[in-house]
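Continuing from the previous page of notes. For each protein in this section, the sequence appears first, followed by its structure tokens. Read the first protein now.
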Amino acid sequence: MRYFIWFSYDGERYHGWQVQPNGVTIQSELERCLSLLLRETISVTGAGRTDAGVHARMMAAHFDTDAVFEPATLTMKLNGLLPYDISVSRVEQVAPDMHARFSARARTYHYYIHTHKNPFARRYSQEMHYRLDFNLMNEAGRILCEYEDFGAFCKAGSDVKTTLCQVTHAKWHQISDTEWYFEITANRFLRNMVRAVVGTLVEVGRGRMSIDDFRRVIEGGQRTQAGESMPAKALFLENVVY
């Protein structure tokens, strides 16, 4: 039988989602705890592969098992066994062909920045002291929805078969006088894509890149022409839609 697990995590202490030989990851912690509780080796497939230091307010994964259990009880036991920075909201049985990664229709990320020193925001938001034109950054953000190939924002050396993505929403939102977040939704994301997009939009907002330059970066498909990758600590996977 196949089950979905819905959970959230603070990624600060982890080497990303995917199991790695020399580091603790979100996937390895889930598999460890599920295997202990269900008394069999459990393999978990996630909705995506967040990088080291990236957080998730809502993440989904699936696993297969013949074990008999109450989903609500397993949820409670998982939360008692998992580290403090990973929290399961629910476990539910799904159809055998439901796939955490390939059945997802859309994913939404938020990237947070603040423009004034704030000791309470520093762990989950990027402090920036540049004068930024958010109207211009939103104009550039809308352009993302006009394109499908985002090779310019893909980490060099990534083993992806295609750099095509369908971005349906990209916009900066103001939270307060000194706090903003960038929201982007797409059917899929490339490795490091959101942080590279944000870094390039910041170049536009600082007046160091024009709107036409931004278009040329996308059309050129070269990572070296885009802006720098922003720090991982301010990036959150906010939602996955099936």
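Done with the first. The second protein uses the same format. Note its length before scrolling.
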Amino acid sequence: MSLRLTPLTDPAHGAHSRRLAWLASDADFNPVGTAFLRLFDGGQQHLAELTLHVHPVERRKGVGSQLLDTAVAAARDNARRCVSAQAQAGSPGDRFLPAHGFRKVLTLRFARLALADVDAIALAEVIERLHPGYRLASWQGTVPDAVAQTFADSRRAMDDMPMDDTDYGTVAWDVDRVRAAAKAVEERGDHLHTVVAIDTADDSIAGFTELVIPGNGRGDGQHYGTGVLPEHRGHGLGQWMKAESIRHAHGRYPDLGGLVTDTADSNTHMRHISDSLGYMPTHTTLQYQLDL
């Protein structure tokens, strides 16, 4: 088919990334597909993340291939060494990506907790279980100034999360980056809620979990990162924090349907935490990578 690819100006530039975009249209200027390529900086300056969509009616006509070729060329022009993309297992994207040279590097398992089914008594028992030497704290939105530095320091808890064969790189967190991430959630109209476990010996943050709730308080919330610093693992802090996060959502957002989490298939510890709190599997997403 006759295809026109138009580069777009994309305003979705973050503090630590920028995004390129293209629109594919047919001979009559009808949109048939899009491609977005996010380019990261810092410890992920080698990486480009691709999101590609083709209208179902227009698939198998070369639209996706042309969009992909354009995005990959841009990744090379920007000195990237790999391009990553995700596809739900069994979807057209799951067939398209390996057919174009991508290899599977990570399997993500998604699970959902229906808030209507939450056993409040069992949840309270988890939260009220004693964790000597630790206490819970939480906040809505941007981290309070008093704990901003220790919260930024605690983000290294994610550095060793299982990523299998993904060439993920490292993310360096400081206070400015933590605040920028919270601001991005706020600007799109959603609510960020953070629960932390604090080491009572020195009031430093030993672990954290983040939950994002839709701005209208309906639909499903999404768990973001959950991590415990290596020196504080083995005390049940991950389950403790996540249970408190569930209690907050259950009590504050009566119209919220559920909470969704995604975990690497190889991260058996975090998957066990979700299972213990009642999350039920929903679907699997595969991460693919093209080495340039």
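What the second structure shows: The longest strand covers residues 103-114. The mean pLDDT is 95. We return to this in next week's lecture.
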